[in-house]
Amino acid sequence: MSTIDTHGPHDSHAAHGHDDHGHGGHHHEGSYLTPRGGLFSTIWSWMTTVDHKKLGVMYLTAVLTLFFVGGVAALAVRAELWAPNRAVSETQPDGTVKTTIKGQLFNIGVPTEVTKVDPATGKPVLDAQGNEVKEWKRVESLNSGNQTYNRIMTLHGAIMVFMVIIPSIPAALGNFFLPIMLGAKDVAFPRLNLLSWWVYVFGSVFAVASVIVGGVDTGWTFYTPYSTMTDAGHWRVVAMVAGAFILGFSSILTGLNFIVTVHKLRAPGMGWFDMPLFVWAIYATAIIQVLATPVIGITLLMLIFERLFHVGIFDPRMGGDPVLFQHFFWFYSHPVVYVMILPGMGVASELIAVHAHKRLFGYRAIAFASLGIAGVSFIVWGHHMFTAEGELAAAVFSALTFLVAIPTAVKVFNWLGTLYKAHISINTPMCYALSFLFLFSIGGLTGLPLATLSTDMHLHDSYFVVAHFHYVMMGSTLIAFVGGIHHWWPKMFGRMYNDTWGIIGCVLVFIGFNVTFFTQFFLGTRGMPRRYASYVDEFTIFHQISTVGSWILALGFLITLFNLLHSLVAGKKAPPNPWGGLTLEWSVESPPSEHNFHHEPLVTHGPYAFDEVVPFHRTPEEFPLPPKPVGGGHH
Amino acid sequence: MSAIDSHGSPPTAAGGKGPLWSRMKHAHHFRNHDEEFDACKLGMWLFLTTEVLLFSGLFVAYAIMRMKYPQAFTNGSHYLDWRWGGLNTIVLLLSSFTMAYSIRNAQMNKQGWLKFNLAFTVLCGALFLVIKFTLEYAPKWAQGKRPGFLFSYPNAQDPYEPIWWSIYYSATGIHATHVLIGMGLITYLFLRSLKGTYGPKHYTGVEVVGLYWHLVDLIWIFLFPLLYLIH
Amino acid sequence: MTHAALIPSLLSPADAVQRFMFRRPGSSPVTHESDWMFMYIFWLSTAIFIGLMALMAYWVLKYRWKPGQPLIRSRSHNTPLEITWTVIPTIVLVTMFFQGFRIYAKQQTPVSGAIVMQVTAMKWSWSIMYPNGAGTSETTRNGAVDIPVFLMPEDTPIKLEMISEDVIHSFWIPDFRFKQDVFPNRKTTYSFRADPLAPDEHDNPDIPYPNREMWLFCAEYCGDNHSEMAGIIRIVPKDVYAKWSSDPWGDMAPAQIGQKLWAGRGCNACHTVDGGANTGPSWKNLAGYESTYTDGTTAVLDSNHIRDSILNPGAKVRTGFTNQMPSYAGRLTEKEINAIIAYLNSISDKGQNMGVAPVAPAGEAMAIAPAPAPPPPAGDGH
Fold first, then answer.
1. A130 lies in the same domain as A163
2. Which helix (DSSP H) or strand (DSSP E) does residue C233 occupy?
3. Over chain C (382 residues), what is each successive 10-residue block's mean pLDDT?
4. Do the Cβ atoms of B2 and A311 come within 8 Å?
């Protein structure tokens, strides 16, 4: 870069528009957050915006809100599992024996027609003809308590998978940063982007509506024939499945938009291998979204037909095949596991490179590993059905599953190699990056006994699986997501948060997470099946440790949330480049202006070429490195 | 879909000269018109990929169920009249031709033919749906040849015929929905073409909707033999 | 590994870890191999993990950076190193796959000459039909419900043929380290051969002969009481099994058998016997009473009606309920149906005197809602 010119450190005058790259006097539109007009017109302008940054912020808000809802459901699940169900008989004063079920915290009962009893006399109420009067009451029983648990468990799973993790990094951070990192003014199809957002809202409303009217107890996987038989006559399952179907559209359209953006809107000078690894990861993710989501679309559509018309394709009573549903479902939902983890890997790459101020070791290997994982992800779905399919299929899918481990291992080694002889700042984003490496390694390594046929026969559908996928989905993806939020928060909102409290939050989350979920590996190997509302006594102590862990985890997230919100009102103004990053988003103001760049940027160095770009005796933070304009003209 | 973003910004130069299509500007975040055109086409191709995958799910279900219950599928196919299916195939092929020709018309600035071909394409789509619903669905439904639990045809030869009808109604129903959506998009093109929106420098919308319409046609080309012509 | 080697003092640290991991050793020859496989992966992973994390911690501490320090030039990649760390994991993973597949093939191979038993899964209970056509006669209390106890002979190849009445279930005995899904439309099998019992092995100390008890769980989510769908597999000496299987009910009274069947064949999943609410009508005060049905008719529940309701539950459904019950035709013998009829009558104050003393309600479980006012004791009520 030739623009390492005259100015010194930025902290004093950084927040809005440092006007120092030789184009004095040209206009500044102000940040994208600046309200235009009154309150209502501002709200309207957000609701109808095609600005990828505003859409990113709206996704972020929605995802965090739903994360809160799903998290409360998770705490409820853990609280319910504090003690197993047991029947306790007590002798009443009148000599009768009364039996109650203990160990069920939540029990909303089931509506049942019962004889109306006069509370004063304790006798049935009779009508004029002398018949007993019936009334509908919510009657609590063992079943209804377990059913309450099953509904909360389904709520947690469905919200976290379909509405939080899948859109978390791609739709929130990806929307905001992908175009800026590419040097573009917006995504390729801004109006389509707005449509995706409203489709996402619409789908979430469907799903949440089904919860408000009583919830669904199918589990987020909707396995047939249970999902087509349960709750007969009610529309809740249809609403939930339709919600997932609609959310799929949002996912497809976002992915499509990102692919075209990456192909067509890279800034001049940015070749494929000059793209930040976050962009590579989002690109690989988008390919999976586009190719896999239609299959879940048709599957869920057929499930809705099955529910409404009993078409019989998945219904064993009519000659259909319930395992066909599982194949369809996992043909989508396994690739979608990588829709969830690949963006997390992309964020981790950014965090590690920027806060270690070092070229990422083996950049191309990481980029190709992303594509490799995306490719292999389509041919391993059968490993979710080792206990349901034939021996040959199981053997083939097991072998293919081991293939995924190779690019994954390569990525971990490369991240670790980046730390060697690096220049590491210990701050909140780096703490999250290190947590990610720790938790993702456990998540990856515990995948090995699940991919191995003989050991999976024991571990399948046990708490081992629960622990494993929480290490990958939450310990890796969501930790990377929260780390990414801390990394880009100054850029998105122009404020610095308190780093000390950020680190405290991160450490609590890390400890709480491990206490909650590491315990569950032992529950699984010792024989605890998943999706149990109760359990046999010998598992109690493990469940109680896990529940205590969930409280620590919740405390960590609350501290983090408060710290971030507090920064919005009381945080220091953020400089354009607080961490010393070299990718294009650090070359624009914090927060960015409406069209991101005042001139089309020209990329002259790699995304992580710290040692080439930052001269001796200077610190990276001193170099916001404004992009070189193309042709000097306005656009 | 891409069509939403394909038609560029409305003309900004008030009182500009020349037909509307020559004054259309590309969206501000593209560098030039060609880039926008390429992006829209790439977007539409990606979307078509998702459509193919959507229907491939149905085709897999078809293949597996036919493998399990070949007799039900042969019987079911014999209830269908291949002549109506054949006529519908011809109608759709014709509409694909006029759709392709309308792109050519836009490129050659033949505004009259452009409007005619677009309108003709919509009418072909409508004719397809009319044949499908009044001559195929309605009589079969009345006879009790319905999917799943709704099945009540008294002369069924095979216990699994309800599965056949489930596949038949799902596949053709989802395809008919696509025809309906395509007709909506082409109607939109037609209305805009009345104002002279499309011409040699601005025909992205016609092009991408055309791609979509050809895919709808192509899927029917697969559905027709698989449903009507099996023994 | 034999079960005699359970004394903690003799355990090496590695064995102690394995014990903690699995609660106790596997119970069949092939489980020792699959446990070895698991521990092999476990120790390998642990070594890799500790290595990686130690490097990470060391480098993070060593290469801390303060603003102002110059940046060192660094390599962007190192091809030989990267090829090495791609190839070595690949080799390890390939061997892991083949080992896993080899043991899996053993797990799946049915033993020739095995005793074949029929397993039926339904919401939310297991039942096993032994070669003599009988079911189990033993139940035990687990948490809030009674679950069946299935006797199995030691050191004998057993093959279970499994089918489901309703949705997909999964048959999992953790001590055999193996599970198999159970489908409504096709039979699947589960084969095992339990290790011989040690003479001093008494998991259940109340039983005079050596025995090993292990859990049976449902591992595929199947609805409300998925978590209560458990059972106990009791491995018993061969001669005990032979004696039991020749006469499973002994000289029990019909109503007592009926009560066992209620607890052991899944009736208790939906029917209480103390008047409490559940998916199906409570059996308390049912026999001999008149009830109304969803088709508008009313009828008195006599023996024939009870029998019809067991064999064809959907024919008449009581108002306030929907039919969720599978047919028991072919799964209960006439003798067992008679026993259930006797049990229903014994717990109804309008029940017929079937010539046996009433059975005290065993299933105090299942009810949260207070039972209706207790009726007078059953007697010659009609």
1. no
2. strand C231-236
3. 47 86 90 93 95 95 82 81 91 92 87 88 90 81 89 93 93 94 92 92 91 95 92 94 80 82 81 79 85 83 86 83 80 83 86 56 38 39 38
4. no
